[in-house]
Amino acid sequence: MTQLRPELTEQHTVAEVPAPDPVDEDLHSVESELTAFLSARERDAATYGEEYTRLWQATGESSRGGKRLRPRLVLSAFHGLAGFGRGEVEDRTAAVQTALAFELLHSAFLLHDDVIDGDTVRRGRPNVAGEFSADALFRGAGGPRARLWGESAAILAGDLLLHAAAQRVARLRVGEATRSRLLDLIDRSVFVTAAGELADVGLATGMSASGLPDVLAMTAYKTAEYSVSGPLAAGALLAGADDEVVELLAGYGRLVGVAFQLGDDLLGVYGDETVTGKTVVGDLKQGKETTLIAFARGTAQWPDLEPLFGRDDLGPDATAELARGLERCGARVFAERLLADHVAAAVATLDTPLLPSALAATLTRVALGCVGRTA
Amino acid sequence: MTQLRPELTEQHTVAEVPAPDPVDEDLHSVESELTAFLSARERDAATYGEEYTRLWQATGESSRGGKRLRPRLVLSAFHGLAGFGRGEVEDRTAAVQTALAFELLHSAFLLHDDVIDGDTVRRGRPNVAGEFSADALFRGAGGPRARLWGESAAILAGDLLLHAAAQRVARLRVGEATRSRLLDLIDRSVFVTAAGELADVGLATGMSASGLPDVLAMTAYKTAEYSVSGPLAAGALLAGADDEVVELLAGYGRLVGVAFQLGDDLLGVYGDETVTGKTVVGDLKQGKETTLIAFARGTAQWPDLEPLFGRDDLGPDATAELARGLERCGARVFAERLLADHVAAAVATLDTPLLPSALAATLTRVALGCVGRTA
To answer: How far is A222 from chain B (nearest CA, A)?
Structure first.
């Protein structure tokens, strides 16, 4: 006990116990709201047959265990700014609902992204498609039928959560103007993310140009907007922050979002599988057009690397060779520097009297957390 | 001229020219709102690359040329009931926006339904998936890549329209209570339609029971709810109709929706291809579990028909043989009677002082229109 919570037992008297963090408190509320929503849906689904109940169960499973990055950002911006602007601060409940909306959006995007990538595993467990197709195989269906059953279930699950996200924002009990601006924000998140997803598939199928600027733009669209910019701007709006602040946070979010994705790309090749829970073969085998690859394509070493890239039968030795090749040609260092540059630029945006210093400190930590990630 | 519009030139003086039908007027508004929405999106998409602009163009194409059944029902209920209930009548603009929301929902469902069915043609033209995959093939991509590109585009297009439908309802300028009830309605439409779609795939893949009640329930969920019940109930709500009337129309809608689908199933086997624009091989080749098939499965003739059903190489002769077989075993007559029964039951629900007679007459025509359809 002493070792586990030294800050309580050794250094503080009871009177000094720190007040519970409102962000953490509200994250608990997000979690209970999500659970309540999924339970109600599972219950309602029973009227429409066993399979539909199973779809909602699997959808619920798929939304468990995430990092809740987006809700945390909504709530950090909300609590960090409430009372700091000139506008009216909306109810804390509205912030919780908005945080949940971004999490539902995230789950919906993951579901459809997995269908598009043909992935059946997410966070180390079968996803909705994986679970439904495995069940079909178990019940004697052939491969194509099982696959169709799995993909259909995942498409529908994504549709249901996408709609649920919009419903949350539509039902916010806030002023007309605030709701309208939040609807704009979530609309933009959906619009821009779809653009990024299309660009990503375009890169993977060779239908879009694959230069470095294209890959970076894709990253900003596909990840940064709905993961960082949108949530921060939403929290700021609900806190009654000035437009300048909302814009500032959205700009910070685009930089951090790209940095985060660059970190993911690096971990996808150089990460420790036992820590990330993600294989280092995946990205290279799937021929994912990351910044590493886009850089490597422009170097003299690419002709040696290309035959290995995107091979369905890529083994551990060839993977290691490809990873070393990407290091030799300078792609790894390039991606690491680009990541550091994005982080530095993001941190620089925070150096302004427009932000309360506690929020600036939190967001600086978030940005710096993108450097040297291990998971 | 005289022959084309005898009602104006021969029988009426100018003073007698009938006032323009408000439903038709508002349908024009729905059309211009849809066009304006799609143009704005296409314009905004340009920032995110050529492919995204093309996605919005193709999405726009895909939403052209429908019968606008759902908007018409919203508007018929709205205008038919406005001033007839005790509640407050909302603005006509709200009815137009709601009508558009149901049309957007319909386009979204068609897009995802086509992905699930692997269809690349809709209304005699390539759909979004068909257009994108054809372009990929043209640009030298192999079959699997072209297919992935097409399906991804269609999944994203469906997501975008599904979200757009929710946004329309969320932004209605109506009273808080009305908006909340309309959000409930569209939520129910999405929830029930997804259940029906899952059941449909379950039948097609052999993952769900395929008895007659299962097939009928699937039809009611997949089609009737969002196509008839939801739109009529929405129009009634906006017209300030009493709850009893809203419920009555939703009930009527479930019956007519099933009748309409039974008509589609019959046309899918016995229709005139030159009139329907739809091949009579499709349903039988795809192994679609319609009421015809569910009935036939329970007859002594099924063992003779089964080997032909769902065959990928089904030719015109075998199709004709299967169609005759379905007739001999009584499936055709059964489906026709069931359709007539649903129509009769729907018409019976209209025989009530709760409805203005003009609306009852319109809805009677709609119901009777499901019998003996040729297209």
So the answer is: 11
* Residue B5 pLDDT: 44
Is A169 in Cβ contact with B112 (below 8 Å)?
A: no
Residue written as token pair 């951090």: A256
Q: Do the Cβ atoms of B52 and A199 come within 8 Å?
A: yes
Q: What is the pTM of this model?
A: 0.92
pLDDT surpasses 80 at A279 = no
**Does ipTM exceed 0.85?**
yes
Count of all residues that appear for chain B in the document:
375
Topology of domain B21-64+91-173, per CATH?
A: Farnesyl Diphosphate Synthase (1.10.600)
User: CA torsion, points A312, A316, A321, A325, in degrees to nearest 10?
Assistant: 70
Mean pLDDT of chain A: 91
Superfamily for domain range A23-64+91-173? Farnesyl Diphosphate Synthase (1.10.600.10)
Report CA-CA distances (Å) from B328 to B210, B277, B322.
Answer: 21, 26, 10
What number of C-beta contacts closer than 8 Å exist between A and B?
166
**By mean pLDDT, which of A224-228, A282-286, B219-223, B305-309 is the weakest?**
A282-286
pLDDT at A203 (0 to 100): 92
Q: Return the CATH fold of A77-90+176-375.
A: Farnesyl Diphosphate Synthase (1.10.600)
Tokens of B352: 């009530």
pLDDT of amino acid A10: 45
**Contact assignment for A191 to B139 by CB distance below 8 Å:** no
